[in-house]
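We now fix the convention by which a protein and its fold are recorded. Think of the row as the fold of the chain written in a discrete alphabet. Here is one such record, which you should read through line by line.
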Amino acid sequence: MGFDTLKLFTGFVMLYFGSEFLVRGGVNIALSLRIKKVIIGLTLCAFGTSSPEFVVSFLAGLNKSYDVCLGNVVGSNISNILLVLGVAAIIRPIKIDVQLLKIDFPVFLITIGFFTAVCFLGEITWVTGLIMVIFLLLYLLLLVKNGREGSMGDNTVLGVKKRKIARDLIVAVSGLAVLIVGGDLTLKGALGIADAFNINKLFIGLTIVAVGTSLPELFASSVASFRQHGDISIGNVLGSNIFNICFVIGIVSLFFPITVSKDIIRFDNWYLLAGSVLVSLIAYKRRKIGRKEGVFFLLLYVIFISCVYIRAAS
């Protein structure tokens, strides 16, 4: 058991630093190409901070641990909108960018609604996964099309940027390698603890694994909020949740049909949907997420964890 705990802890550390290197390299490349900050938050930061969920969920799919695979994504998404966004808003109230209200919040809600509906089928097949991936690609194309800020500059500057981009690319690839190893350790540690204590694997996926894989989002959004980059903070959360479903579940289901637990259908998905709608309504009505809303989100997250624990213990 102690060895499994060590695996889990080491895996979390590697997931954090792996995603940090991946995000740092990707963001620097994007900044060199003059991509807007909000676009960085919605794409590269979101992809980088969702990479732990992808690695862990894909490896869980390989091991046919579908409760961990799906629980990780659902739990992580709930963690993002209630825990991550709550902490970020408490640090500093978050102003909502107009572009988020016009494009990204609607895409976010459509994604969550589609995922909730699909889960009622009892299985997420490759057809559903393909639809998710295509939807994500269309969304990214729209973001990239509207996200450039200007020309690259003269040839001398371009040459400097090429060298800088090569260095940042090495950092990003190194981060990805660390992520893969960390994801493997995290999954093995979590499954080992579940077996040792005879704990429901869905509970492990929704709580311990979900929070662990959400640490990059938590740190990224908290730091962004502290540095008064609320656009990156909220963009990271929205983008990460969209990526978690369309990319993580979409890609995994292309390889393995994902069986959906009845507990997820009955409670967890509804909690995710309700939380997503609540955050969106506040954003549209107030155009910001203040400290009071942040405290309320944290309370809702504590309630969710308590309900999941009570269900697992019964």
The two ends are 23 Å apart (CA to CA). The chain has ten helices and four strands. The beta strands are 94-95, 123-124, 258-259, 288-289. The chain has one domain: 2-313.
